[in-house]
Amino acid sequence: MAKDMTLLWGSGSPPCWRVMIVLEEKNLQGYNSKLLSFEKGEHKSAEVMSMNPRGQLPSFKHGSKVLNESYAACMYLESQFKSQGNKLIPDCPAEQAMMYQRMFEGLTLTQKMADVIYYSWKVPEAERHDSAVKRNKENLSTELKLWEEYLQKTSGSFVAGKSFSLADVSVFPGVAYLFRFGLTEERYPQLTAYYNSLKERPSIKASWPPTWLESPQGQDMLKDV
Fold first, then answer.
1. Where is the GST C-terminal domain (predicted)?
2. What tens digit of pLDDT does each residue of 119-134 get?
3. CA 62 to chain centre
4. pTM confidence score
């Protein structure tokens, strides 16, 4: 079944990582995997553009079906292979509601993280303002404190209840990205415990970004957040 699947991906990209985690969780190893370089602009190649006219990664294809949004691909895989591998959507209505809530809240976390990390990359130097940098960091700090509270309520193992779910698939790569960019462990103990626990999960270890393995030392951009 996995032989009918193709994933074009970039190392370290949280959206790409989400899809890879689900493929591991659903025992769909053996899919056609192609690692592309963002630095070389390979995400704008004809191969990617033919699958994803936005020129973004991941680009995922199952048979003739193409899903390029990571949330869509993850939900599709869980739906199509519900009885295979690990269940990623709980049956209990209350747990399912919490899973979807945290899953989509993860988009806000990702956006506030990106506002800080990518500010100097996306905003031309003449248009940058110290006040904007300060505001973005304060917004991210407020967001992280909210997730600290969420994790405290769930005892920290998973973001949406008693078991690993699509909420964790969606949120964990972003949390790992935060620590890669220097988030202070002492300041966010719940997020730190969550990160240290899940980074040992087989699906996450198997899909760990190869560039991070090659260069374990990240950056310190978020050390004062």
1. 92-217
2. 888 888 888 899 999 9
3. 21
4. 0.95
